[in-house]
Amino acid sequence: MSGANDLTALTIAEAREGLAAKSFTAHELTSAYLAAIEKARVLNAYVIETPEKALAMAAESDRRLASGNARPLEGIPLGIKDLFCTEGVRSTACSNILGGFIPPYESTVTSQLWRDGAVMLGKLNCDEFAMGSSNETSAFGPVVNPWRRTGSNVGTNAGTLEGTALVPGGSSGGSAAAVAARLCAGATATDTGGSIRQPAAFTGTVGIKPTYGRCSRWGIVAFASSLDQAGPIARDVRDAAIMLRSMAGNDERDSTAVDTPVPDYEKALSGEVRGLTIGIPKEYRLDGMAPEIEALWQQGIAWLKEAGAKIVDISLPHTKYALPAYYIVAPAEASSNLARYDGVRYGLREQGGDITGMYEKTRARGFGKEVRRRIMIGTYVLSAGYYDAYYVKAQKIRTLIKRDFDLAFAAGVDAVLTPATPSSAFGIGEKGSADPVEMYLNDIFTVTVNMAGLPGIAIPAGLDAKGLPLALQLIGRPFAEETLFRCGDVIERAAGRFTPPAWWTP
Ligand code: GLN
């Protein structure tokens, strides 16, 4: 292998082979990524770089590789969404209220990645407390999507941004941008209403939100506890399968983590889908849906059919209530989870005379606008007078949404195919500043999956007329992530992979 760029071009599976064959060392692989990160600071994907830690972990990997004791992710350099607590490394959820917070503990998911030999490159930017669809609510500023519209002048003078740079999606915008720009081999992410799948769709990467309970939530900053799930964002389906195997598993510190064996997901990548039935839900065909999205969907159906799947039309009648119900349930849980940030135990403290003054000043200064909006909506819908009218109704809708899926699965459907997002990536500052609902509409195809606790994967499937990636979503039965990998692999083989040119490199 020659030159740093060649090493960052490798997938996790390819890097694993190269390390085993001693074509290069973990030190060389990590150094290549550290150099790439340094040249890509204009993208703002990392909020903290940890090169010393990375090189020390790579040295340990090289020792284990030399002694023949390599682990499943030995020497693979990863980026970690800043929502995961990392021991001794600042973890802020990209909020000022956690400014300077250095956890004395490691999240279960990340500790499993390190147990398996992975190397930490740093912490990745995200929307504040994972609330957003564009990474624009981060206290560290927006992330720039490595993809540009055809003919765009963004980054014409390398190292600067002219014209409208695009958002990478959110909330896991740093994770998706870093994977797409080859600033890590893979990244951790979280998904409460679409935050793994929508940024994966906007950046031509693969993102899977596993079944609720598949990965432990312990040590991940909580947004909406009944919806939050961790998962990987990766370059391709195989890499996502490799990462999820290490991230998943039961955990006695999370009572909602499920005690069921973690399969070797790579074995699911057979290249065919014979015997599987794929449901196409008519309610996802929105009025005024972009013809390109409809065409992409039809293409996905054709690919799965060619590979042996049976395609059936299905109905998920309560889909239209999912988004409004999500924007009641998620803020309700958020308002409760975020009550702990009061200036006493974590991060920021503003002096305010008495204790109430201190709480008020700390929370007013520490939380950004979108987070304050969610806390206000959440406390409103949980208040005595409105609890039944909003919160209880939303919970009932949630049950009905889950029942829609249950009925489809009971009728023999193995997976549901839909578009992942209603559009390709939009410009920074282009959406949601006047009306937050404009931004919330981005989640229209993804929130149902969290409401029902099901696994969902986003697979890049093509480019639109602007030259930007578009993705399809597959939704599976509980704990049937293998089916999603199997179908996703078929789509990936047909569609190919999508990598943006490195215009940001000075
Ligand atoms: N965009 C959605 C929201 O803002 C989902 C976020 C997420 O999945 N963390 O709530």
From TrEMBL:
Pfam family, one: Amidase
GO CC, alphabetical: glutamyl-tRNA(Gln) amidotransferase complex
Catalytic residues identified in the record: 81 (charge relay system), 171 (charge relay system), 195 (acyl-ester intermediate)
Broadest EC class assigned to this enzyme: ligase
Superkingdom of origin: Bacteria
Keyword hit for Transferase: yes
Catalysed reactions, as listed in the record: L-glutamyl-tRNA(Gln) + L-glutamine + ATP + H2O = L-glutaminyl-tRNA(Gln) + L-glutamate + ADP + phosphate + H(+)
GO biological process, one term: translation
Domain Amidase, residue spans: 28-484
EC id: 6.3.5.7
Molecular function in Gene Ontology: ATP binding; glutaminyl-tRNA synthase (glutamine-hydrolyzing) activity; transferase activity
InterPro entries noted in UniProt: Amidase, Amidase_CS, Amidase_dom, AS_sf, GatA
Keywords (A to Z) from UniProt: ATP-binding, Ligase, Nucleotide-binding, Protein biosynthesis, Transferase
Family statement drawn from the similarity comment of this UniProt entry: Belongs to the amidase family. GatA subfamily.
Quaternary context: Heterotrimer of A, B and C subunits.
General function of this protein: Allows the formation of correctly charged Gln-tRNA(Gln) through the transamidation of misacylated Glu-tRNA(Gln) in organisms which lack glutaminyl-tRNA synthetase. The reaction takes place in the presence of glutamine and ATP through an activated gamma-phospho-Glu-tRNA(Gln).
Name of the protein in question: Glutamyl-tRNA(Gln) amidotransferase subunit A
Organism encoding this protein: Candidatus Raskinella chloraquaticus
